[in-house]
Design brief:
Elements lengths: L9 H34 L4 H29 L4 H38 L1
Length: about 120
């Protein structure tokens, strides 16, 4: 069974390209902030929390850029728009799964810290 190919029109491509650009910008800025925090941590006597924040910012930034590149493929190729859209959505889903895992781990870390302080 052959799937029918779909090509987004110019307006749809502009929306997707805008999303890709924003993901790349936000990702790049997060990555730079993470690097800056990491450098400042090493310039001073850094702590584990600063290293964790820097690592998360770098990881989130890199993942956002990765997702942005996946969305950009939709607008720069022909006859494979739906395939690229599905791959881009899978990539974006991975990005948010990593962020959700970091939030849950952070919540457990805070709860553990509070538990130890109050017992």
């Amino acid at each position: 069974m052959s799937r029918q190919r779909y090509e987004f029109d110019t307006e749809q491509n502009a929306i997707i390209a805008g999303l890709a650009m924003r993901l790349n910008i936000i990702g790049f800025v997060c990555f730079l902030i993470g690097l800056a925090v990491l450098l400042m941590m090493f310039a001073r006597t850094g702590n584990l929390l600063a290293m964790l924040i820097a690592g998360l910012a770098i990881a989130f930034g890199a993942l956002a850029v990765y997702a942005g590149q996946a969305f950009r493929k939709i607008t720069t190729t022909q006859t494979r728009d739906i395939d690229h859209l599905v791959e881009a959505l899978k990539t974006l889903n991975r990005v948010y799964n990593v962020q959700l895992a970091a939030i849950v781990a952070g919540a457990f870390g805070v709860a553990y810290f509070v538990w130890n302080v109050w017992k």
